[in-house]
Structure formats: structure tokens, C-alpha cells
Amino acid sequence: MTKHQTIRKPILPVEVQLPKATKRADVVPANGFALVVDGIFKKEFEGNAVAQKAANELLKNYPMLRVEIYDASTKVRTLVC
Q1: Going by fewer Cβ within 10 Å, which terminus of the chain is more open, N or C?
Q2: Beta partners for 76?
Q3: In the prediction, which pLDDT does 29 show?
């Protein structure tokens, strides 16, 4: 018998995860349309119709929120009722 026995553990490959590119909520989008919930930019969309549909879905589930659609080209917010 040896004084010290070594235990061999299987070597598992380590996957390197790159940091995700996160968008900051306090930065106004440069193009397209954005969903603004209670004054905070939440999500960006390419078209107004898609943004309007997302806003209506959100208001259907959470009617107490203040939801606006921000148009980046004209820099105008439109309240969704």
C-alpha cells in the first residue's frame, strides 16, 4: 500500500461564455420604434404595427401600466390606451 493514493477525476471541458450585448434602458434608440413602459424604454421594434400589437397585449394583461410607443425618426411618444 502506498502512503498517498491519488484519485483521478475526469476532466470536463470548460465552456467559455461570452458576455451578452445588453442594451441600456436609459439610451434612446436611434431608429425604429420602442415600447416605453412607465417611462422606461423596454423593447425595440422595426415597425409601428408590431409595436402597437405588443403594447396592446401588454395592456390587456396589465391595464395599470402606462404604455407609450416612441418613434425614433420623429422623436415623438404616443400614449397607447
Answers
A1: N
A2: 71
A3: 87
Strand 76-79 relative to strand 67-71, pairing: antiparallel
Spatial distance between the Cα atoms of 81 and 8, rounded to a whole number of angstroms: 65
Q: Give, in order, the Cα–Cα distances in Å from 18 to each of 15, 21, 22, 24.
A: 10, 9, 12, 18
Distance CA 13, CA 39 (A): 44
The helix/strand/coil state of 54 is helix
HSE-CB at 79 with a 13 A cutoff on CA atoms is 4
Cα separation, 36 vs 67, in Å, equals 6
Confidence of residue 23 (pLDDT cuts 50, 70, 90): low
Confidence of residue 32 (pLDDT cuts 50, 70, 90): very high
CA dihedral 30, 33, 34, 39 (to 10 degrees): 90
